[in-house]
Description:
Layout: H1 3-18, H2 32-43, H3 50-56, H4 62-69, H5 78-88, H6 93-102, E1 106-112, H7 115-127, E2 132-136, E3 141-149, E4 152-156, E5 165-168, H8 170-177, E6 180-181, E7 190-191, E8 194-195, E9 204-212, H9 225-232, H10 236-252, E10 261-263, H11 264-282, H12 288-302, E11 308-310, H13 314-333
Antiparallel strand pairs: 1-9, 2-3, 2-9, 3-4, 4-5, 6-9, 7-8, 10-11
Helix pairs in contact: 2-3, 4-5, 10-12, 11-12, 11-13
Bound molecules: zinc ion.
Amino acid sequence: xxxxxxxxxxxxxxxxxxxxxxxxxxxxxxxxxxxxxxxxxxxxxxxxxxxxxxxxxxxxxxxxxxxxxxxxxxxxxxxxxxxxxxxxxxxxxxxxxxxxxxxxxxxxxxxxxxxxxxxxxxxxxxxxxxxxxxxxxxxxxxxxxxxxxxxxxxxxxxxxxxxxxxxxxxxxxxxxxxxxxxxxxxxxxxxxxxxxxxxxxxxxxxxxxxxxxxxxxxxxxxxxxxxxxxxxxxxxxxxxxxxxxxxxxxxxxxxxxxxxxxxxxxxxxxxxxxxxxxxxxxxxxxxxxxxxxxxxxxxxxxxxxxxxxxxxxxxxxxxxxxxxxxxxxxxxxx
Length: 334
Ligand SMILES: [Zn+2]
């Protein structure tokens, strides 16, 4: 492989996996669990790269599953071999729970055949601003319930060919995404002529893991869940780079309100035009509308979390923010 191809490959395929992830479509078939964990963490104000998310969730890639499960005598039954590999690849719920605990957050699991119980559980936690990672599509895929817009559920889905953000009504969520057929009756509701004693005829099992960050939270969405969702829906650039912006912002702003603190929104309100002027002056080659759009993105992310700065340190914050902002523009535009 020539150095040129290697470097193009590195920049386009490998580097993005090491940078802070945004709300993205999964880059391969096996990382829906890791992406869902990364997406839920972003909602709670924590950034990580796709690679870190995979490591935290112990996601098993197809090649790793192959190495683990392959034996020469399996070649006689390729279909069975395929099944063994498919079963071993992906992310196990136990490892998602483990990854949540490792963040010092509290995982709460729900596993029920009763529809109203499943929805009640989800509604209660979404109302409190806690994301729920759910097992969807007959337990073959993971996605995240982020919150509700009036009565509809907002699902963040990294699935290839899916919109990352979409809304579901109560029924379409249960029927199209959040379901797993009962293993006992396989969705018929009956077993040997009687009502299935595992699911009691409901046919579908619903499994979800809530992330309750408890007190171990640096930046908490809480009542801003709605703001974040509204900022993100339909804005694909913002979705993809959300982690990037957040990563820069958390270097500059504080997560806690202290004496003399002002919200980050004040900072943007007071200094947006000055930053725009200064940065456009120094960076020839980036147009003013581009600078304005990027600044708007930073502001949207900053206003989605409770981030603060000390008014007495405005000059320092301004210098730090401008440095981060210019660094990003140079990297991405020049
Ligand atoms: Zn059943």
